[in-house]
Write a structure and sequence with these properties.
The protein folds into two domains: 115 residues, Rossmann fold (3-Layer(aba) Sandwich); 48 residues, no CATH class. It is globular. Helix 2 runs parallel beside helix 3. The chain has 170 residues and is of the alpha/beta class. It has six helices and eight strands.
């Protein structure tokens, strides 16, 4: 598995650094945030592929963070780590996986690997081709659609234009 960008949100500085060290040793690029609000601030500049969040944090907890992340981009898997055993059975709505702190190191590594695998070839259409469509329109008034395909953590842009675009999109 190639390394991806992982954002770790936890109010415990020792736990954050432990997660950073472990994930970096696995080849991932890691950014840390001291709570859910700080994690939201990091979304646009770091653009994480996966988020690992503690459930109980001051300000914005892991449950609220999961909801806000998915309001922005529902394709980002959020792995929630908790010491509360009662939260493991029902899970957390929207969370990719809920991992107990007792099994956190192995659980987080397995969950990150599963999240990368599940997103590996998920095509996502971006909202409106915008500038790309205007540029292609000038080149021949053809219809064009931009797709972003995420493969092994690397986003690639694919342009469907000309006869194929007319056949697919009318």
């Amino acid at each position: 598995m190639r390394g991806v960008r992982v954002l770790v949100a936890d109010d415990d500085p020792d736990w954050r650094e432990l997660m950073r060290d472990i994930l970096e040793s696995e080849g991932h690029t890691v950014a840390v945030a001291e709570n859910g609000l700080a994690a939201l601030d990091r979304l646009s500049d770091f653009e994480p592929f996966v988020i690992v969040s503690d459930l109980r944090m001051p300000g914005l907890d892991g449950r609220q963070l999961t909801g806000r992340v998915h309001a922005r981009d529902r394709h980002i898997p959020v792995i929630v780590v908790t010491a509360d055993k009662e939260q493991l059975a029902p899970g957390i709505p929207g969370a990719f996986r809920v991992v107990g702190k007792a099994d956190a190191i192995e659980g987080v590594l397995a969950a990150v690997a599963a999240a990368v695998e599940s997103r590996a070839a998920t095509p996502r259409r971006t909202r409106g081709p915008g500038r790309l469509r205007r540029k292609l329109t000038r080149l021949g008034r053809m219809r064009a659609t931009r797709w972003v395909v995420v493969a092994a953590g690397v986003a690639s842009t694919i342009v469907i234009a000309g006869r194929l675009a007319r056949a697919v999109y009318g």
